[in-house]
Amino acid sequence: MMRCIGATPKQLMRFVRREALGWYRFAIPLGISAGAVIIWILCALLRFLSPEYFAEMPAFGISIPSIMAGICVGILTVLLAARTPAKRAARVSPLAAVSGNANSLQPVRKAANTTLFKIDTALGFHHAKASKKNFVLMVGSFSLSITLFLAFSVTINFMQHSLTPLKPWTPDLSIVSTDNTCSIRSSLLKKLKENPAVKQVYGRMFAYNVPVTVNGQEKKVDLISYEENQFRWAKNYLLDGSFDSVQQKSNTGLVVFKPQNIIKTGDTATLHIGGQTSDIKIVGSLSSSPFNNAPDVGTIICSENTFRQLTGETDYTIIDLKLSKNVTDADVDEIHRTVGTDVTFSDERSGNRSVIGSYYSFGLFIYGFMALIALITIFNIVNSIAMSVSSRMKQYGAFRAIGLSNRQLINMIVAEASAYAITGCIFGSVFGLMLNKFLYAKLVTSHWGEQWNVPFIQMAIIITIVLLSVILAVRGPVKRICTMSIADTISAQ
Fold it and tell me: For residues 260 and 42, what is the distance between their CA atoms, to the nearest angstrom?
């Protein structure tokens, strides 16, 4: 109608852009206010979860660069979104506008294929594919959300390997030999087991920098003993091989994965200890262990019986304790007096709490970002499908005028939305899995040796979100069309 009263195409394009920016004018203060409040809440959570790292974080800080960046990105997005409608509005002739046919339908070049589906469902699929540009954009937006979700989900695996809050073997107290030898008597471990404040106690024997010959190459390894509890905890980190062999058979061991490690499962390593040589069969490998050593020093884990046979040592290098609930500092002092002053007594409780706080802080960021991707996916799908239905309102009215029932109309709209969703899920899953596998290899496999598996849980979550979003998106427009008269549907703008 503005064309009828003399508006030029350039003026019409400017009008459409200003209308879009007028909506954004209200979104700016709302988005900045909501964003600031959410950031304040997250900062408070970080200070609570990990005060050691975030205690100095301001309570009610304002980031001017972030606000300006958000405003600029929003304006750019609005202008790009308004570009196509503005150009389409500018091309409308005054005659088409006054006749009510400004939104002319695209010419039909090919009829709907009714071979596999009924006419209403076939028309829905046909409408989805009618505009190749629109179909590609819709499918692309769906698949991009799925791809982002699957790619970013790799950070969960990375976090679980690098920032495990408390692995099962993590102690509350540690008793360590002052000279890193097997000098802590075995009787002390039995005595500590009788203390009611001690929930669990376990020891390890160490032989550091042991020369070893494997496949003709000379290397050094740390030989470490495990007892029953530690073997049970390590089962979750077994990459290959068997725990039964290393626990039941003498002169067998496990190797801890390192990218540069030359010792593999199935190798026989010749240890040179105290002027004698002994062979140990490697029957498995672990992705992780509680020990850190030099990059060129490997780690071999064996049973206590095997360690004693190979080294002749009977006492422990380290004894770790897990405490019962509600243990007081007086109980810890009593344990310290029992241990004596000939060893290093380490209280790890404060450090453990700090690690847990760091884990939850990192988890807050990762899971929060994934929740944000899910919310963007929902809003994008609901808005896109609602706009698609609105653009065909007159066409739906014409279908109803020639006898299409409400049920058939619903099937048509659902079929169109399903075409976008199913195709988007297929492409998004393919590209998402490819990127997920690539990032997993770089972030996890290269550091801990754990091989990639298809993330079925993450795929199920994001695909369920997409499908539920489609159901939510078609519900409103379908209900509105069914309650409108045929005349109102045809004349709807």
Answer: 40
What the block records as the tokens of 34 is 């909501």
Q: What is the largest CA-CA distance in the chain?
A: 104
Instruction: Work out the burial of residue 137: count CB atoms within 10 Å of its CB; fewer than 13 is exposed, 13-18 middle, 19 or more buried.
Output: middle
The pLDDT tens digits of the residues spanning 249-268 come to 999 999 998 877 788 899 99
What separation in angstroms does the CA of 405 have from each of 111, 397, 418, 470? 21, 11, 20, 22
Q: What is the CA radius of gyration of the chain?
A: 33
Phi, psi of 50 (to 5 degrees): -140, 75
pLDDT of 253 reads 94
Instruction: Count CA within 13 A, CB hemisphere, residue 264.
Output: 6
Structure letter (DSSP) for residue 442:
I
The pTM assigned to this predicted structure is: 0.65
Nearest to 124 by CA among 389, 490, 382, 378: 389
Residue type, 293: N
Assigned token pair, 203 = 């020891």
User: Could you identify the residue written with the tokens 């078609």?
Assistant: 474
Query: What residues contact residue 405 under an 8 Å CB cut-off, 6+ apart?
Result: none
Query: Strands 217-226 and 297-303, how do they pair?
Result: parallel
- Cβ atoms of residues 374 and 467 within 8 Å: no
Residue-level pLDDT at 165: 64
Name the H helices within 62-131: 64-90, 94-99, 119-130
Q: How far is CA 74 from the centre of its chain?
A: 26
Residues 6+ apart with CB under 8 A from 413: 124, 389, 396, 474, 477, 478, 481
Q: How confident is the model at residue 142 (pLDDT cuts 50, 70, 90)?
A: confident
Q: What is the mean pLDDT of the chain?
A: 84
Give the H/E segment covering residue 213. strand 206-214
- DSSP code string of 135-188: HHHHHHHHHHHHHHHHHHTHHHHHHHHH--SS-TT--SEEEE-TTSSS-B-HHH
Answer left, alpha or beta for residue 16, where phi above 0 means left and psi between -120 and 50 means alpha: alpha
Query: Which are the contacts of 311, defined by CB distance < 8 A and separation ≥ 6?
Result: 182, 205, 207, 223, 273, 274
Average confidence (pLDDT) over 333-350: 90
Which of helix, strand or coil describes residue 301?
A: strand
Residues 6 or more apart whose CB falls under 8 angstroms from that of 461 comprise 149, 374
Residue 109 above 70 pLDDT? no
Q: What is the dihedral of CA 27, 33, 36, 41, to 10 degrees?
A: -120
